Amino acid sequence: MPPENLSSKIPHMTPESAWVLAADRLPSKEIIILCFGLPCANERLLRYLDLLRQRPELLAQTGACLICFELAKRKVSEYELEFLTLLPVVREWMVSSDETVEWLQGDSMLAQLWTDLRDRLNSADPREAFLPPPVDQVEDAELEFALFEEEEIDDLGLDALAEESKDYKVLADAWNDRVNTFLLADRPKCSKGFFAGLDGDLDRFEQFRLEAISFKDDVSNASSMLPIVELFMASHMRSRNFFGRKNKRRAQILVSGLTHMLESPRPPVQAVSWLQPPTGHPDAWPKIAEHLLHFLSFAAGYMHANSLLPHEMTDFDFEDCLQRFLTQAASAEPEALLHDGWDRRRREMENEFDNAF
Hints:
Layout: H1 15-24, H2 28-37, H3 42-53, H4 58-73, H5 78-95, H6 100-104, H7 108-123, H8 150-155, H9 158-164, H10 168-184, H11 201-215, H12 220-235, H13 248-263, H14 269-273, H15 284-305, H16 318-328, H17 342-355
Helix pairs in contact: 2-3, 2-4, 2-7, 3-4, 4-5, 10-11, 11-12, 12-13, 12-15, 13-16
């Protein structure tokens, strides 16, 4: 039943305030039914969401997660991260002893939403659950230093002092330790080296990627390893996210790998060697090569569209090409050209998943 209208009973109370007070008196189950028993506008869903967040019981938090799920499906993007944060609550609810069928009985819209969520959870890639959310736009913040002009800061010689204080042999040894740990160390729910078949593997790659970023300016091997790690990650992520939309995180990691490959002072020969057995899966390099061919094909089309001939490569704007690739083609799955077997079947299954949306 809808919340009782108290605005006529309490002087000087607006209808909206009266609604909030009345809804707060309802049990969590009835609030959830109000959300999904009838079509509900986004603004009203947000009101219900605030009420459920204030309640500690599992049912209220599950209802809050369902509201975030519905808002994310409606392409209210800021609630995608909110939903992914609350996702462990839903998983706990699904394995609890409560009779969910009885709770859903008679509420067709709620039952449909729950079934949709359950099916997505069953088909989701658990390896991506621990990765950070995609960054739609990163703006560099400028630090204002009022005590000195920029030229005066340069005259202080701080950059030169920091450069002189670096021990590059120590840094190289530290990086080698990171590589050995990545290739050989045991971790729960993780593989070793360039394998990504277990739930925790992409998170393991993300940690190694961050370490490579911290070393890349001082250790050439880290600089050449970084793009290979990023391209490997992109080749093992789905082209569609949990909500059936383009996987921005995968596209951004792919473009980052291409950018770092261009910036690397040396070819990634040593890094590519780790992709071979026993430190890498036999399909590791073919997958990366397919993504590189995917980009080269796009770059060739970019050159044709801009009337650039091979001898006019000085006019080639790599950054603009990458930006267009990010928005137009990076989210697409590259064509399986270099290998067959289990990986081709994986791609067919992913295409079936994509087509479902």
